[in-house]
Each structure stands twice: as C-alpha cells, then as structure tokens.
Design a protein that fits this description.
By secondary structure, the chain is mostly helical. It has helices at about 20-30, 30-55, 60-100, 100-135, 160-165, 170-175, 180-195, 200-225, 225-240, 245-250, 250-275, 280-285, 290-300, 305-315, 320-335, 335-350, 360-375, 385-395, 400-405, 410-435, 440-445; strands at about 5-10, 15-20. α3 (about 60-100) packs antiparallel against α8 (about 200-225).
C-alpha cells in the first residue's frame, strides 16, 4: 500500500511525517484520550452557553439539546451497552479457558475478590474520617421537605439472598436483564466445563471463544473511534440542563465527597499500583486518563467495561485472561466511589438536620454502606437510591433525598470514575502477582511490537 505524505502540527511546530495509513490510525488512537478531553470541555462550554443565553423553550433547547444532543448521546451509550453482556460472557469464558489449571482460577478469584473488598472498606473509612473532620452540612438550610420523595427500597440487601440469586433459574432472562452476577456465574461454569472436555474438543472450543473475543475487541475499537463525538453530545446536554443554583447551597458537601474521590484517583490508586507493580504513579494516571474521561461523561460503570478492558490490555500490559475475569467482577462489586458518595451524603444530611452521629451510628453507617456498595450495581438509580436506604436505616429524614438528587449528576459521574479506575488498579495489582503483566510496561509503559512477554 502506498505511503501518504502528511503535515501534522505538533506543539505549534510544523513537522513533516511520512506515515502509512496504519501509522495514521495508530497516531489517532494514541490521541484518543486528548480528543475525548477536548470534546468534554467543548461540550460543557457549549451546553452552558445554551443554558445561559438561549430561551428554555426556544429552538436550541428543543431541537438541539433535547433533540440532537439527547439522541446522539443516547445512541452512543446504547452502542457501548450493546457490547457489555456479550463481552462479559465471552471474555470470562476465554479467561477461564486460558488458565493453565482450574486451581489457578481459584487463586485469581480469591485475590481479586479480596482486594475489591479491602478497597471498599478503606474508602469508607477515609470518607467517614474526612467528613467528620470537615462536617459538611453544619448550618445548612435544606428547605426541601418534599413529601413526594419516597424510598424505592427500605431494607438492606440480605447477603444470603444475594448469594442464592447469583445462580440463575432462567439464563435467557439473565442475559435479557443484564444481570451481571448471574452472567459471571454462567461464564465461569461454562469455562470450567470447556476445560474438562477431552483435549481436542477443548482446543476447538477454546479457539472459538478466543476468536469471538477478538471480534469483541474489534467491535470495541470501532465504537471507541466515535467516542469524542459521543462525549461531546453527552456533556453538551449536561451543561445545558444542569441546575447550578441547587449546587451552590451545598458546596461543602459536594466538595468533601469530591475531595475523597480525587485523593483515591490521584494518590491512593497510583501509589498502590506503584508500590506493588513498579509502574510509576504518573504513568498509571496517564494511561487511565481516557478511561476517566469516558466514565465521567457516561456516569456508567457497566458502559465503561469495554474501555476498562482496553486500558488494561493495551495500555498497562495486563493479560486478557486476568482482565477478562477481573473487569466484569469489578463493575459489579468494586464500588468504592459509591461507598464514598453514600457516606459523605449521609453525614451531610445528619449535620444539616442537627442529628449527632455517635460511634455506634458511625459503625452502623460504615457497615451498611459496605453492604449497599456491593449491591449498588444491581439497583436502578445507582448510589442515590442506596443513599436513601442508608438514610432510612439511620432514621434520618427521607426528604433530604431532594438535595442529594439535585447534586447527583455531578457526584455520580465522579463516583463512576472512582469505581472504574479502582477496577483498573486492582486488576493491575492482581496481574503483577500472577506474573501476567508485561515487562516492558513496568519498565517504560510502552507497548511492544510482536509477542508480549510476561513477568
């Protein structure tokens, strides 16, 4: 194929490059995070301008925000969600098939599950500590006693019922409803069954799932090429509809929750990965920025699964068999961001209504938030709904949900970023402990050509 001459401006200087078409695609792929960030900023600026200067019932709000932006963003998120269920099932089966023995799966599962739980517990402790120090909500006047607000759940998730519900009675229903835990169970059992087949049968079926996994990766690449446009639509609609006035009155609460999440994203996770894997904290932040931008715009852990998988395998050198197992599990139960959200919101409500939380109440708050964080992924409405359950459990006014809902759009996005980057951090640590992370990534975080060697 003939080469193509290109003039590409980089750092305001004109450099001449002779690049093949494959080189152009590689250049565009490497700058995807930058283009997503640019789209996010432009979208927010455009949406904010429309909200400030356009009529609420005018042409721009009706046909551009509620029309083009809404439709374009919904279609893009729909395309991502379309990939989630088949990606989870195929990648898990493929990961189990690639294990050298079934015993390795038990060790991998124990490490991943354990680190996800530890991450959530530490996040809850940090959130309680900072919130009790800052005391968000002291002196606040919510004025939101809305009797129409009701809790969609009034009881804690029962651990035994959660375990029983993991085994699906109707596999078709599990796939149709996107029940991640049940899909995980079916995928693991299917992978183990494939491993127990006769050698020639195992080889054929394993190859079929490996091929299907390659197809899913290609689909992810195709959809992600449209990410800058999708993010532009999503953030433009957000900027055009966000009620900034309701946020100002409770800025202390918002900033406290954001502070804990920022520390988790830019200090806790990078340091944990740096200490355990040798990847520098700055490199980890740089390699996850595309994932951060995407999850910030979609505010959906499940929708970000393909991007998380891509970040791990293509940017951090984690093997597909580790990423294929840990990413879907993390999207289901690794909810450190949701735990921070719920804890800070509950302490804010207690302070705003003059309710003192003693040591017993704080322990109940932490334990309940831990249970709810694990269950958050399967509850429609996400962390704001489980926050309502937490308020009810501690006997706090349910009408305070009004202010929580009013600020949910900002905190839910930050919460999602914290969740998904946590999935990446835990997966990277587990991969290093299993010898399934690229040597070259540890040394200089550059993707090698040819076959990847693992340490």
């Amino acid at each position: 194929m003939p080469s193509v001459l290109l003039m590409i401006p980089i750092n305001t200087r004109r450099w001449s490059f002779r690049m093949t078409r494959e080189g152009v695609l590689e250049f565009m792929n490497q700058n995807l995070a930058t283009r997503i960030l640019a789209s996010l900023v432009i979208g927010l600026a455009l949406g904010s301008a429309i909200q400030l200067f356009a009529s609420p019932d005018g042409f721009l709000q009706t046909y551009l925000v509620s029309g083009l932006f809404h439709a374009g963003g919904s279609i893009f998120v729909g395309m991502i969600k379309l990939l989630v269920v088949p990606l989870i099932f195929i990648s898990i089966v493929n990961a189990v098939c690639n294990l050298e023995d079934v015993g390795q799966f038990g060790r991998l599962g124990f490490k991943t599950f354990g680190l996800y739980l530890v991450n959530t517990v530490v996040a809850i402790a940090a959130a309680i500590g900072l919130a009790m120090l800052v005391q968000p909500g002291i002196g606040a006047n919510l004025g939101l006693a809305d009797e129409s607000l009701t809790l969609s759940r009034t009881s804690l998730p029962n651990l035994l019922d959660m375990v029983i519900a993991v085994v699906p009675t109707n596999p078709v229903q599990a796939f149709a409803e996107g029940n991640i835990l049940q899909i995980l169970f079916m995928a693991i059992v299917t992978g183990i069954a494939v491993k127990k087949l006769e050698n020639h049968e195992t080889h054929s079926v394993s190859n079929a799932f490996a091929l299907a996994n390659s197809v899913m990766m290609k689909l992810i690449t195709m959809v992600m090429s449209m990410a800058p446009l999708g993010v532009l639509f999503l953030t433009a609609k957000l900027g055009a509809t966000l009620d900034a006035g309701s946020i100002v009155s409770v800025m202390t609460y918002v900033l406290t929750a954001l502070a804990v999440m920022v520390v988790w994203l830019f200090v806790f996770y990078p340091l944990a990965v740096g200490i355990t894997t040798g990847i520098s904290p700055l490199q980890f932040i740089r390699q996850t920025r595309e994932q951060m931008m995407f999850s910030l715009s979609t505010a959906s852990s499940n929708a970000t699964i393909p991007v998380t998988f891509r970040t791990l395998t293509e940017k951090l050198g984690v093997s597909e068999k580790v990423a294929g197992f840990s990413v879907p599990l993390g999207a289901t139960m690794n909810m450190s961001g949701a735990a921070i959200y719920m804890v800070v919101a509950t302490i804010f409500v207690a302070n705003a209504y003059g309710v003192e939380l003693g040591s017993t109440a704080l322990f109940t708050l932490g334990f309940t938030a831990f249970l709810l964080a694990i269950a958050t992924g399967g509850i429609p409405g996400g962390a704001v709904v489980t926050t309502g359950v937490l308020l009810h459990t501690l006997g706090l006014p349910a009408e305070a949900l009004g202010i929580i809902i009013a600020t949910d759009r900002i905190l839910d996005a930050a919460c999602t970023v914290t969740n998904v980057v946590g999935d990446t951090a835990v997966s990277t640590i587990v991969a290093k402990s299993e010898g399934q992370i690229s040597d070259v990534v540890i040394e200089n975080n550059e993707k090698t050509s040819g076959e990847v060697q693992y340490s």
